[in-house]
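Exam revision sheet. Question 4 asks you to relate a sequence to its structure. Input first:
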Amino acid sequence: MQFSGYIFDVEGTLVDSVRQNLLSLQESLADFGIAAPYDLLQLYSGLDGDQTLQLIAPDLDADERKRVLEAQGKLYERKYLESVKPFNGVRGVLERLTKRGGRIALATDCKGPELKHYLSLLDIDDLIDSLACGDDVEHGKPDPRLVGLAVRKLGVPAGQAVMIGDTPYDAEAAYAAGTAAAGVLTGGFSKEALTEAGALSLLENSAISCRALKRERMCLPR
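Answer key, C-alpha cells:
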C-alpha cells in the first residue's frame, strides 16, 4: 500500500538517543536505591515512563514514580542531551517524501528542551506539517492517542498513514490508532519484536532512500 501521510517517532528514530535515555533512567533509579540492569531497561525503551516504572520498580507509588521521572528529565538534560546526534540523512529522506506529495508529522513523547534541541539538530521544521508531542497528551506510547492526534493534525485518513518508529510500542500505538506501522532497527529491538508488535515493514534506519521506501511500497510514486 502507498501512503500519503508519514508519522515519525523522534527519539531512537530520527535522533540517536536511546543509550542516553536509558543511562539517565538507570542513574536516577540508583539515586532512589533501585538497581536496574541496562538490559532490563532496554526492554521498555520507548514505553510510557510511568508504565515502565510500574514494571521495573513495582514498589514505588505514584508520587515516587513522578519524582524519579522528574529527576531523570533533569539529569538527561544536564548530562546527556548535548551528546545526542541526528541519524545521517534524515532531512534528505523527508525532502524526497514531501516532493512526492507526502505529508509529514512527528509523534513523540518528548517535549520541552529535549524536543527543541532535537528539532534544531534535525533542521526539518520546513518539512513538518504537524507535530504531536508529550505536551499534548497525558500518556505516552503504546497509548494510541498521540498517534491519533498526529493523524488528525496531518489531515489524512488513518488508513493512508504509516507510523515509523524504533520500538514495539510505536507499532502498537499505530495499530491501535488505525494506521500502518514500519519499524526501524535503531532502537535496540530485534526484527522479531517489531514484527510481533505489528510493524509491517522493517527498515535499517529512518535515513534511507525513497527507493527503499518505494520497494517497501511505502512511498508515493512521482
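Marking note for examiners. The chain has two domains: 5-16+85-215, 18-83.
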